[in-house]
Design goal:
- It is built from six helices and six strands.
- By secondary structure, it is α/β, with parallel strands linked by helices.
- A hairpin with a 2-residue loop joins strand 2 and strand 3.
- The radius of gyration is 15 Å and the shape is globular.
- The structure holds guanosine-5'-diphosphate and magnesium ion.
- Keywords: GTP-binding, Lipoprotein, Membrane, Nucleotide-binding, Prenylation.
Length: 177
């Protein structure tokens, strides 16, 4: 995870969106720093975190943007979406409402972001299987219909987090290069 003084070939901006408390900030902490904190406070001040990685022998700086508690409908500004080439649209598999709002987030994303933006639908908190309120199949169907990637993740257990981000970044790279 160390960032060396190396030549950066590409910078990819990826935004995290979705209802409050679904685990966006913890997914970012897991991906950028391999950390998780149980009582994560609302992210204040920090706009994005970066992680430098290699794809196809190119050095890519992933710049991942996190909402600072502006998840109320339409409160995320267009500056947040500007220049984004990827998006992680997150819901909580134990909160039906957070999944019901996904269509709204998608609409907002598509009205602000670039037409070719790569989108991953993420059902987070897969470690809480006994409290599941959103069947995997429902999300899978939605993602297929809307042409999104889809994965269930656990930021807590570090399940599929790396894979979700790498899938999006690789697809962005494929489109860009
Ligand atoms: P955000 O508002 O979307 O940024 O959500 P946070 O990242 O702040 O997480 C909200 C709450 O859910 C916090 O109490 C986290 O510890 C918890 N949380 C986040 N990810 C997971 C996960 O994968 N599993 C479980 N069990 N809890 C999680
Ligand atoms: Mg947050």
């Amino acid at each position: 995870y160390g960032e060396f003084n190396q030549k950066i070939d590409y910078v990819f901006k990826v935004v995290l969106i979705g209802d409050s408390a679904v685990g966006k900030s913890q997914l970012l902490a897991r991906f950028a720093r391999n950390e998780f904190s149980i009582d994560s406070k609302a992210t204040i001040g920090v706009e994005f975190q970066t992680r430098t990685l290699n794809i196809d022998q190119k050095t890519i700086k992933a710049q991942i943007w996190d909402t600072a508690g502006q998840e109320r409908y339409r409160a995320v500004t267009s500056a947040y979406y500007r220049g984004a080439v990827g998006a992680m649209l997150v819901y909580d598999i134990t909160k039906r409402q957070s999944f019901d709002h996904v269509a709204r987030w998608l609409e907002e994303l598509r009205s602000h972001a670039d037409r070719n933006i790569v989108i991953m639908l993420i059902g987070n908190k897969s470690d809480l299987g006994s409290l599941r309120a959103v069947p995997t199949e429902d999300a899978k169907e939605f993602a297929q219909r809307e042409n999104l990637f889809f994965m269930e993740t656990s930021a807590l257990e570090a399940t599929n987090v790396e894979s979700a981000f790498m899938t999006v970044l690789s697809d962005i790279y494929r489109i860009t290069s």
